[in-house]
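Entry 12.
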Amino acid sequence: MKMGFEEEKGSEEESISNNQFEKIVPFVIFLLALFLFFKIIEPMITIFLSSILITYLSYPLYKKIRKRISNKFLSIILTILVIVIVLLLPFSYLVFEVTQQSFEFYNSLSSNIAKGSLFGIGCTSADSKICSLINNIEKFSAKSLSKIGFDKQLQKILPRLEEILTNYFIEIPLAILNGGFILFISYFLFNDGEKIIQKIVGWVPIRKKAVKKLIDKFEKVTYAVVFGQLFVAMALGFVAIIGFYIFGVPFPIFWGVMTAFFSLIPPVGTAIIWVPASFYLVLSGYLTEDYITLSKGVGLFVYGLLIISTIDNILRLKIIQAKADVQPIILIAGVIGGVNLFGVIGLFLGPIILPLLLTYFETFRERFE
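Predicted 3D structure (tokens):
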């Protein structure tokens, strides 16, 4: 009797072991195949991911065009044309301007530190106590930054920025070629995207329930990241650039991009850029007795308070409440890591891929519980 029980127990343990083996082996084979596939397309991984992202985000537009135009080929071509005009051309221009203005800003900052005038306000009134205080603060700040080697770090950054700017022009033909590949792949994704997704879902060796969970998560994360976070950030950056241009802030596109970046960090927000910028203009105008500049500083402060902050609050309430939100720390890590890994397009890819990986790990853990 005891022997029979032990045999039954051993058989049960063997059955459990076999079940675990059957679960793990297909998964390991799938990972190996995925790794080999990745190595094959690695030289073009950014192009493929960019195509997938652009196609997914533009698919609702394609559906609307398809309803009005019966010819599928013309619908796809028109959608791609809209993508080029609305997305790719402005984005390319923005990248160029940010790089150029970054170089000019760092060059100006390096020059000001060398002169002992950190902010470059140029206060010369000997009788003004405020002027004297500002000059002392500037000199102290410049000396402090020099002591910690900030000026030397700037000298290292400047050649790198100049190299990036030079490479931008040299690599324009390559960028156009890559853009052509992206649009070429997007054409096939628009044409056969649904069939491709069905095939991929059939290949994935995990339960259909888990696949559905990943797809749902992808839709929610993409909406939350691209529209709920990055779209809001880009809109705020654009509004900030307009304000900086109107009120005469130096390097407006550079500071507009900085405004967009800091809008991703809730405790900090956009005010960390436009408040100091407005005070800089007010202070500069007051010390140089340039009341036009002073009034521009006041105008920028009002603009930031009434326009930038209001748009920020309205857009976030309208968009983010409708879908799943993403933790700011994951978003920032995704942005920085994505840009480092994929380049500029990583700004969008990183914050989407990172939450998806976390969801996949969660699904994988649940499978073995």
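Annotation: The longest helix spans residues 72-115. The CA atoms of residues 141 and 301 lie 25 Å apart.
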